[in-house]
Amino acid sequence: MSRAVIAGIGEIPATRRPTAGIETPGLLVAAVREAVADAGLTRRDVDGIGVSSFLLAPDQAIDLSWQLGLSTTWQAHEILSLALLQQAVRAVEAGDASAIVLVAGDKMTGSGFTAMMEQGYSTVWRDHLASLPVGGPNALFALLTQAHMERYDLPRETYGRLAVSQRSWAARNPRALYRAPLSIYEYLAAPMVADPLGIYDCPPLAAGATAVVVADHKLVKARRKSVPRIKVRAVAASYNRDHQDGDGLTTGIASVAPRLWEQSGVAVGDVDHFEIYDDYPVMVLAQLQDLGLFGDPASFIASRPVDVPWRGINTSGGLLSGGQCGAGGTMKGLVEAVRQLRGSRGAGQLEDARLSVVTNYGLVPYRYGAGAVGAVLERTR
Q1: Model confidence over 4-21: pLDDT tens digits?
Q2: 4-110+206-228: what fold?
Q3: By 3-state DSSP, what share of the chain in percent is helix, strand and coil, each rounded to 5?
């Protein structure tokens, strides 16, 4: 029996206009406390912490653990939160820690985003791109979307159907930032940001945080009468797959997927639920294709209803409707997957969800995402 389970989750919902005085450390602390309580634990039980944040700097995990009053034997700091999950599961399995809280988030409002891009995102961006009228990631992913449209002969509506589906799911999620219905006509008529991307193709910047607790199942069972066991069947990562020399339409998930299926012992057709990192619609389609869900995106889109949410894909509403809280966006899908597998999602609950796949994609040096991580989660009895 695997020792490590996901025992608790916490979420501070995204907001575009945070209350005065709310900063990144406060958001992270609040999410941690919620997740630890959800796991039925106290801070004295927690002996590990992993942090995913752009704007916590110059503070690191040890500074946050001090603010929380934690004494730990394990700490880590990553931007892709599924990389933290990979490390935390192995730490619990090895006995390095018995309860690790992982937290991701930022106060990623306009000023925070500007500061990150100009000063601290990466030396390549700072030294070579920040001074150019690039316009941030929207322009880069507009080029990728153009390339994807040309390769597969897809109209803009293709990407809009994904955005509309995710908004339909968001309407059933009280934590989503935008819940009002979105039609394909509204999508196509929306103001252009960077051709062919309109405002509904770009995730809204927000402030918020999410957290999960990875713990030894024996500890959790000792603290709770009922133990909702969410097992991580597999987790795998890929970094610098093509060293920025590829076309950007094949992501690191293409390298991750074979290991996910081998480690987990399941196939893509067995999966009930996908939470795919959705910084832009094109990247959702690229990652689903890399996972092996389909070969031709045009045929896949054509098989999906226009006005009904796509079953089992980004049921939280994703970042496009839920808001991108900086590095916190990489954990939003993980928290949603746990809710679906627990059966606690409420109005957006999938029937009898047993297997979920979650992905992270990002860390763009200057052209494409250099990092990708995937995980297979399972509800066990």
Answers
A1: 999 999 999 999 988 888
A2: Peroxisomal Thiolase; Chain A, domain 1 (3.40.47)
A3: 40, 20, 40
